[in-house]
Amino acid sequence: MPLLVKICGLSTSGTLEAALDAGADMVGFVFFEASPRHVGLGAARELGRIAKGRAVKVALTVDADDATFENIIETLQPAILQLHGHESVARVRDIKQKFGLPVMKAIPVATAGDLASLPGYAAAADRILFDARAPKDATRPGGLGVPFDWHLLDGIKLEIPFLVSGGLTIGNVAEAIRVTRAGGVDVSSGVESAPGVKDADMIRAFIRTAREAGEISANTKVASRV
User: Fold this and answer.
1) For residue range 104-143, what is the model confidence (pLDDT) as tens digits?
2) More confident residue, 28 or 144
3) Is the dihedral of CA 75, 80, 81, 83 positive or negative?
4) End-to-end distance of the chain based on CA atoms, in angstroms?
5) Which is catalytic among the residues 21, 114, 131, 186?
6) How buried is 5 (Cβ within 10 angstroms: 0-12 exposed, 13-18 middle, 19+ buried)?
């Protein structure tokens, strides 16, 4: 399957249009007030209208309650809910059942031990997002611009798709794809000129670079089976 490219933390119509025109498969909107990428419901409604039918809309939340989900879903009409907090496996299942939408669960990674929870989440979610674990003093779980050791995913076998995030940039995304063999990549701070400020040229360059690396990875997989 072709590589999925997700641009996350979009908050303006101009940068959203840049991502859509460049061919982003998924566009992510952050609903978490501690993040510089947070969008209010009013802005989300307009951004969702622009993205409708052009890319998969992803709503990113952090330990959100049901009322918050209801407001987000009514406003944005997302195709996927991205859970980026400390949601338990049971909570993931509960969210899927209550709201009837696919769920992508973020797994923070710093050491091999962080993957111990993976089987439970993989059984409950529809997609997994491997992200770099935030430092203990961080005020938010993602968008910090720090990669993790991708080799920790060596030999990972999942029955559901997974994406890789955390410190991805134009300069390292090809290596991340080569090492992890991920089905998708997710970038936020790596296409910003300042925290929360997306750069249209960087978005276009990232998508182009990721696509090229994805094609190389796909051809390598085919060649290895011949």
Assistant:
1) 999 999 999 999 999 999 999 999 999 998 766 655 555 5
2) 28
3) negative
4) 17
5) 131
6) buried
- Residue of 68, 209, 212, 63 lying closest to 201 (CA atoms): 209
pTM score of the predicted model:
0.93
CA distances from residue 67 to 81, 83, 98 in whole angstroms, order as listed:
14, 15, 11
Q: Scan for tokens 């940068």, then name that residue.
A: 15
Helix/strand/coil for 60: strand
Helix (H), strand (E) counts: the chain: 7, 10
User: Could you tell me if 29 and 57 are in contact, meaning their C-beta atoms sit under 8 angstroms apart?
Assistant: yes
What is the secondary structure of 155-220 as a DSSP string? T---SS-EEE-SS--TTTHHHHHHHH--SEEEESGGGEEETTEE-HHHHHHHHHHHHHHHHHHHHH
Which of these, 87, 76, 84, lies nearest to 34 by C-alpha position?
84
Average pLDDT over residues 136-158: 77
- Is 131 a residue of the active site? yes
By C-alpha distance, which of 11, 5, 37 is closest to 204?
5
What six digits make up the tokens of 173?
Answer: 């995304």
Task: Report the C-alpha gap between 51 and 78 in whole angstroms.
Answer: 10
CA distance 127 to 42: 28
What is the domain partition of the chain in residue ranges?
4-225
Q: Are 8 and 58 in contact (CB under 8 A)?
A: yes
Choice among 8, 63, 65, 199 that is catalytic: 8
Span 4-225: which CATH code?
Answer: 3.20.20.70
